[in-house]
Design brief:
The structure is a single chain. By secondary structure, the chain is an alpha+beta fold. The protein has one domain. It has 8 helices and 5 strands, in the order H-H-H-E-E-E-H-E-H-E-H-H-H. The chain has a 5-stranded antiparallel beta sheet, with helices on one face. Helix 3 crosses helix 7 and helix 4 packs antiparallel against helix 8. The longest helix is centred in the middle third of the chain and has 24 residues. It is globular.
Length: 225
């Protein structure tokens, strides 16, 4: 993983097309290293989440090129890499398990991170998750508690309980969520550990009850849509 982080650091310092073109062969190698790592991670997660079995690295990873069409930041490349392992792949809309490496700290999240859940949720799916919270909020709170070391990301939380849900609910804070995602920052030493895939699998295993509950609500929404 060291060569992956080293390439991303240098890309962050030289984020232009000329530099990238001159180092394209190196990127091809780094991309292969990340794909091989992703394969191991998929296989590991599949030991407790059979629904991801058979996914390919390209089903779970992202292009290095940034979409700058609607952004004031015109840097052409990402200075991070991420793998999102979810049932039916990264574009399915289902909750899943995400690993993010960002050594330069000037990209998407600013640090290395583990995350488990769903973000950028479609309105009808979000309503289904909130109904799940209303009916089984204690179960979700217990799932969050059991994911030791992870915390609920409240960055995108509403100030008020959304219309149609009881403001006096004991689970009001959960109902305010727009993203349902647990996260855990990790150190560079963690990322560079020789048994990284195995360590990630054990961390993500802790979040499975939370993911299961989200995907139950997401599946119900898809059946109704």
């Amino acid at each position: 993983m060291e060569e992956v982080l080293d390439f991303l650091r240098r890309l962050s310092e030289n984020n232009d097309r000329d530099w990238f073109d001159a180092h394209r062969t190196e990127w091809t190698h780094v991309k292969g290293v990340w794909a091989a790592f992703t394969t191991r991670l998929i296989e590991g997660i599949a030991t407790f989440e059979p629904s991801v079995r058979g996914l390919r690295p390209q089903d779970c990873t992202y292009r290095i090129a940034r979409d700058t069409r609607f952004s004031t930041d015109k840097r052409p490349y990402k200075s991070w890499l991420g793998t999102f392992v979810a049932p039916r792949g990264k574009k399915s809309g289902y909750a899943g398990y995400y690993f993010h490496v960002e050594p330069a700290g000037d990209g998407l999240l600013g640090n290395h991170l583990l995350a488990a859940g769903a973000v950028c949720i479609e309105p009808q799916v979000l309503r289904s998750i909130r109904e799940e919270v209303l009916d089984h909020g204690a179960e979700m709170m217990e799932s969050i508690r059991r994911a030791q070391g992870f915390g609920l990301d409240t960055t995108n939380r509403l100030k008020r309980v959304p219309t149609g849900f009881p403001a006096e609910s004991e689970f009001a804070d959960l109902l305010k969520q727009k993203d349902y995602c647990l996260e855990k920052p990790v150190s560079e030493a963690f990322v560079l550990s020789a048994d990284l895939p195995e360590r990630l699998v054990e961390e993500f295993r802790l979040t499975k009850p939370f993911i299961d509950q989200l995907n139950r609500a997401i599946q119900y929404a898809y059946e109704e849509m």
